[in-house]
Amino acid sequence: MTELSTDRRQPEMPATRWGDPAEAGPLPDSVRGLVGMVFPLGDTPAREDVTVPAPALAAELLDSLRSLLGEEQVIVDDEIRRVRTRGKSTPDLLRQRAGDLSDAPDVVVRPRGHDEVQALLGWAAEHRVAVTPFGGGTAVTGGLAVDRAGFAGVVSLDLGGMRRLLSVDPVSSTAVLEPGLRGPEAEALLAEQGLMLGHYPQSFEFASIGGFAVTRSSGQSSAGYGRFDSMVVGLRVATPSGDVRLGSSPANASGPDLRELFLGSEGAFGVITEVTVRVRPLPEVKVYEGWHWPSFAAGADAMRALAQSDLLPTVLRLSDENETAINLARPDAIGGEGSAGSVASGGCLMIAGYEGTPEAVAAKQAAVTAALEKLGGTALGPEPGESWSEGRFAAPYLRDSLLDVGVLVETLETATFWSKRDELYRAVSAALTETLGEGTLVLCHISHVYATGCSLYFTVATEGGEQPLERWLPAKAAACEAIVACGAAISHHHAVGTDHKPYLAAEIGEVGVAALRAVKAALDPQGVLNPGVLIP
Amino acid sequence: MTELSTDRRQPEMPATRWGDPAEAGPLPDSVRGLVGMVFPLGDTPAREDVTVPAPALAAELLDSLRSLLGEEQVIVDDEIRRVRTRGKSTPDLLRQRAGDLSDAPDVVVRPRGHDEVQALLGWAAEHRVAVTPFGGGTAVTGGLAVDRAGFAGVVSLDLGGMRRLLSVDPVSSTAVLEPGLRGPEAEALLAEQGLMLGHYPQSFEFASIGGFAVTRSSGQSSAGYGRFDSMVVGLRVATPSGDVRLGSSPANASGPDLRELFLGSEGAFGVITEVTVRVRPLPEVKVYEGWHWPSFAAGADAMRALAQSDLLPTVLRLSDENETAINLARPDAIGGEGSAGSVASGGCLMIAGYEGTPEAVAAKQAAVTAALEKLGGTALGPEPGESWSEGRFAAPYLRDSLLDVGVLVETLETATFWSKRDELYRAVSAALTETLGEGTLVLCHISHVYATGCSLYFTVATEGGEQPLERWLPAKAAACEAIVACGAAISHHHAVGTDHKPYLAAEIGEVGVAALRAVKAALDPQGVLNPGVLIP
């Protein structure tokens, strides 16, 4: 068992912004000038003079919680409660920035291991207290906004006290991780043994292992290393009805695969306290490069060809024409030629990345390069790839800076089969632009591909106006309705939460909803786990 | 939509034997001589003079069924009922051979599509009639032996009336298949469009698409094409509570993946009426070859190395020393040298197979060959591979011939992580030999590998004696207990059925069992679907 030393922990994110406060800042003047050419700029800073509602949990319940878990594990500090209010979607941030802390938990509890989680759930069920598991706090679909109606209070179950690498099985290439480990923390512990997990979503620096599991996260290297759910071979879960260990083997025929029932369960069925994952040797070589395609369709068809011939690099992503143009409009790129110069006149940028041993990288890169050239792509060399790699986790910081000057920025994503890709792309783009009106920028990329289909990830930027939240919500609803009308996924890798709940029944049917409700009732009969989240 | 013409249908299997009656026969004299050197040979033919119990279903219920589905879909013929009694495990065959037809269904119903299945389930729930879905009848874990206690009768829901290729999406590389298609039938329909599924379990010639799905089948090409569950991207399921379509996208984060709840559900939650699978182009080249390893452990370590470096051929299987020796003892090989001569003195035979385009096969074969040579393997050329390929579906015929002469033969399989492979192998082997006594042959192979672990498939041959069934059941129980004690999977690709049900709770815990029961109660409140199967 390897403890994470305190000084290696990721910093805590502030209540109103993404990421490490040391990395945050105003828009650079050069970017500000550029953005100002598109949107009217204002000055809309976050309110910091806010009051956190007094805890609603009765004093005797707080006392019994302290007796159960120890004084230090039970935290009622206002600022700590404030930063565990909601996640980091733009609506979450807009509410936080406006000083709306109506969703604040009453108390933050930080158990030190499985047994304390199990004890807490027993206590919560007995006293009808709602429990919302909190990993990295990076949720973007309202998964932390529990419905407290009918409960004696809301406990934020902070998994930050569970950040150990419990064991490594080098023969089987597996490792057992605690759920509170953030992405870089887990990778640092594994790297000490020459290993890695290889899961790099944009939220990587702050999101947690448990969060990756319960939201079916997918990272930027999914083409090579798979989705997070495909990395999981075992789970230990605490539920109000007892605990369960799942994963006798990599795959089996011992009935339905119940790992898949807890993966994506968003804390509604239980709290994952241990995650056994497949690990890999640290790659010796990492190569990222750019490709130019005449159109989004041409690039997407090339991705499809690679996936259908099982010839995928480690990273494969493709920006549409809008996103390509915006990415090129980096202040440091303006006026310059650079290696990306050939896409300045239009078309789409693809990033392909290769990681592994020198031999494996060389072989894969050669095969993919031959295929992409044959399909009509133009190699742009390493510069666009390195530029993407350097900025791969930076977008949420830029969003904060844009919110500060009154520009509304949000993302949403979906997935479908290849034959419906274009229909879905057009429908969601149209829903967003029609709702938000002229002057709205809608960008899109494909960053996760399969033999049978792909994800579509949209970024929207528009004037925030006086009421940015009220301006965004109808656009989000229109996008969701367009997704449902296409028969596509309401989320490819961000989960259901509360934001997508109204659309889930359309996707999994009433029979699917009945199955989820039945499992919920069996494992959490008092309904204390993340009430109002996931299950319609 | 493409119908399967009647003359292209697979023949029906007889009640007491495997496969096509035209292919069955007594042991060749040469084999008989060889087997006689190991086991005392007798003459224990199957009883064919048996009486099928009279149907227990009330006449008025039969009449209402005929009104609902039409006269021709409702079959009470004794022989048709007899061949839909149980599956094809050795215990099933021993009971059938002894004339025990106590598990015979009262009536066989053959719906022509989803709507008729849905109507049948409504009727069954209303009248409390048990329904056991019957695909190819190849079940080997008692999945067709329903518990009729408390029911007005038992209907065998024969899916043989649903054998269409409903649609193909060439862009997404998917096809929608009806569940009653047998393996070769589905491949024949797909081949007309230059496509294939690539799922070849030993039961391939007779098992059905629906059966592959509900048992989480895995085929001989799983290293290259994946398990059957990994090929499934969509399902339509009829349940007594209504129907559901699942699979908005290849993968997503729309809550738990409910496809995984119906895959492996063995007809206990609903009847799968459509399966959408990933398809591939027909391979232009197929190459199978042999490798020699000094020991089972050395060969298994090589498989592990390939899997952990994501460098897998299409087919990869390894026999242990016993199975290698027995396979070599083919009458046509005895005394000859052949290319397998170098393993005659011991060691283990591995089969590696490559399928695809000439370029892809050449590249993969070169890379795997280099890796295997480096790991200490000795290439044996194509002959052992071709020999394996020719006989790949033949073992069940040999079992019948051996049962005819009083030799008891059965198989069982499990899966675990690599670090526990040897412990599991020893434990199961010991349980079998200790229970069955001296003179028992226990053979093993690995035919499904993952980065983190593998399957172990055992074949047992022993003197049948006077009461072969009573002789086998304690050995099977001892093997199951050894599997459970190792924390391994009670089945890698043959499901739970009734045979493995006593061991399921040890694998998925009481919480896992509670989840299954809850789903069952929600979707099948009257419990009419395959009662007694899967769920403890």
Overall description:
The structure is a homodimer of 536-residue chains. Chain A has helices at 29-36, 59-69, 78-83, 90-97, 114-127, 183-191, 209-214, 222-225, 228-231, 259-262, 296-308, 321-328, 358-374, 382-391, 395-404, 421-436, 468-485, 501-523, and strands spanning 2-3, 74-75, 107-109, 130-134, 154-158, 164-169, 174-177, 195-196, 232-239, 242-246, 271-278, 280-281, 285-293, 315-319, 348-356, 378-381, 407-417, 441-446, 453-463. The first copy, chain A, is an alpha+beta fold. In chain A, the strands form 4 sheets. Chain A has a 7-stranded antiparallel sheet, with helices on both faces. In chain A, strands 1-6-7-11-9-10 form a 6-stranded antiparallel sheet. In chain A, a hairpin with a 6-residue loop joins strand 18 and strand 19 (453-463). Chain A is globular and about 70 Å long. The model of chain A is unreliable at 331-343 (pLDDT under 50).
